[in-house]
Write the structure tokens for this entry.
Amino acid sequence: MADLGPCYFIIFGATGNLASRKLLPALYQLEAADRLHADLRFLAFARREWSLSEWLGFMKQSIQEHLGKSFDSDVFKRFEARFDYVMGDLNDPQAYKRMMDELSKPRMGVCENMVFYLAIKPSDFLGVIEQLSKIGISRTHGRHRIVVEKPFGEDIESAQALNTKLHRYFDEDQIYRIDHYLGKETVQNLLVFRFANTLIEPIWNRNYIDHVQITVAESEGVGRRAGYYDTAGALRDMLQNHLMQLLTLVAMEPPAKLDADSLSDEKVKVLRSIRPIPPQGVGDYAYRAQYAAGRVNNHDAPAYLEEEGVAKASTTETFVAAKFYIDNWRWRSVPFFLRTGKRMADNFALIAIRFRHPPQLLFHEAGAAHIDPNWILLSMQPTECMHIELHAKEPGLGMNTRIVRLNATYRPSQATTMEAYKTLLLDVVEGDRSLFLRFDEVEWAWRVVDPILRDWSQRRDYIATYPGGTWGPRETGRLFEREDQVWRNEI
């Protein structure tokens, strides 16, 4: 499959927020890097009653806004020549017939390998899959690939229903469940950092690690996504997929090989080992809140309930913090603290591994009751870097210690950052599924958070708030086990 490239890449929801902000700029960058096959064409499918030239104007503006000065008009001329446009509603059978007419034009012979990218609301997935089946798109037609954006369902039952429908028309190796965090270079480098260094792996366990923190914070509010977000919330939108994937990569055992199934096997073992949250004790493991009015970057920011499209009495969470335990040989009794939220103090994504204190504190001033622990910090935002914090002697006559940093950053300061979507889209085109999710990963992640979802669905009369522009509610400190465990808010 990897050596048979697709001849068409169909984008459903081509005028939506995801396509204009992420998908189209990433595809343009692949064009600029000469990574797209000469015969590959794109078909944009959207509701707007546009001509092809109007669509191309919209796409050019979207890419220019995203890339700024790096936009190259010559590259765009090559890129736009690959495009066709079909107008239609996602539920209109006639629109799919027009799409098939466009795909059947004699440009390159018979096309038996297409990519269908669902850059649409999750609630529309099943309808599009049904329509594709009615026009003859099934596993008997070449090696078509379908790309599904997160979240994969709204709970475990809807995820299973979506998977059943997908498998009615597509084999598992044709389904690409995309989580763009897995395309980030720091995330991929985590595997190398762990498994290519004999210095690291022996201490990557409960004997040396005190706890693990995974934070993904956004300073922006809900923006134009209120229609989707108010029915999803931070738990479904972020924690169940992005943060849970980061947890599995931190905690997994070495895979037999770096192929898709071997990686998925080890990640599923982690998810299956997560201690079930007791239904009566959800409050001890998870905390939710919603942003109130505040100040972000020295500007007043509205409360979530004041955002356009948000229900006035909404109790949807924009912040969630949770604690998980992995009951296996390596991680028994080590807490994993996960935290994500909108309208927070900064755009910040960090995996922070805190080590245990030495069994005896020798090198500090007499009478001092505390010494800072060692940390390994893997930052994804605002910068991609890795640091190890260790103790060294302070200059002078005494034996006092201070923190020094070993910089394990792998990217030169002038190097260009590789967009996560750019990496993943190239993998889709080339047929590499190693950075995509297998369904049992999705299913077990839903099983982990299901007790939280069920509890919160029954508590819709009140939700705590936190001021916009802060690091979230202070009450999340109750998730920690000791006073010396606190959130790491800086690299």
